[in-house]
Amino acid sequence: MKIRALVLLGIVAAVCLTLLTLQMRGYAAGASDAVALVTTPIQTALARAGRGAVGVWDTYLDWKRVRADNRRLRAESERLRVEALRVDETLEENKRLRRLLALKEALPFETLSGEVIAREWGGWMRSLTVNRGRGDGVARLTAVIAPEGLVGRVVEARTGASIVQVLTDPASTVGAHVTRTRTPGIVEGDPRSTLRFKYMARDGAGIRVGDLVVTSGHGGLFPRGVPIGRVRAIDDRGSALFHYAHLTPAVDFARIGEVLLLTGEGARDVAGAFASDG
Amino acid sequence: MRTLLAMAVLGGGVAHTTLAPILRIGDVAPDIPLIVVVLLALRRGPEFGCVAGCMAGLLQDATGGGLIGVQALTKAVVGFTIGALGARLSVGQPLVQVPGLVLLSIAEGLARYALLQLFHFPAPLGPMLGYVVLPQALYNGVLGAALVLALAWYRALREAA
After folding, report:
1. Which of A72, A85, A97, A149 is most deeply packed, by most CB within 10 A?
2. Predicted TM-score of the model (pTM)
């Protein structure tokens, strides 16, 4: 080992011991001040560097935490939104089924509830497929209703499902009358997916916009008094034999989800089973 | 050499004031300047180790508010000793590094305690050894070994590149 290194160690030790001795004997007040003069700026710089480094690190950690929180909250929000939609959907379905049940109980004959499982909305024909068929006792021409009113009739009964021709189908016709004036006529489906009420001019003088049109019960296919729609506009054709009233359907065929199929025989006037406000 | 010395001393000081509080486990914080002095002394020899230890210790004494010169002397001795013995020790293995740093830290702690005793330091040796010197020595050993491994890995990466 070099002598120089040992000498250096000796000098360092001597300086340190002298410093310690001076401090213990109280001669180091000035020296402490001198040291403080040198060390304070260094300490300040170190503290700032430390705060800076820790600050950057903390900011990074905060950013990571916020990002993780953000991801978690976004997933939770997504889940809750789906949950809320499901709850809304369930509530809506519940409401619809309650109304259907109330109607089923109010009707004076046997019915069968069914779920709409498909829709044909091409224009040439408009129909719904219901998950009840021959196996459930459904026959061709069975009347199909909803809590709002008449839906249509079964045109094809299969084993486990039925095809229901809705009122707006261009080939659909239903005997009907206006409740206020008792004006008789026929409700026909329209290619524009609407309904029109065809009546004899001499009978329809008193028909007004807003009048309710219900089934007449003639022909024995539909019970009497089932709401079909309300008069939206009247097409006065002057001296023609027949006039037309355009109707707003009582049932929203595009949205309907559950229906009742009238499978049993019974009293034929069911107007009292439907909520009527005019 | 002066630049390296200044960087080492200041770097150790910065690390001690910034990293040590973050790395604290319970009440035990590593003595980062001691680790830096040991690593430098191993590579640079006893003179550099002695001066680096003295400067780093002096900085710690001055910033710590205790008796100025205690850590300067003990770290200078540690730096000198490890610098002198380094060439003869196989310090590349973690199995040597961890116990080596632990023993050095204990030695430094005991030397500091002995020095302070000369100046009427009131604390008894047992609790100081049990609660301060030994836990810190263990921590220094693990952290120092990790640092050595990280440096070796970095060097290997550079050589491969």
Report:
1. A149
2. 0.47
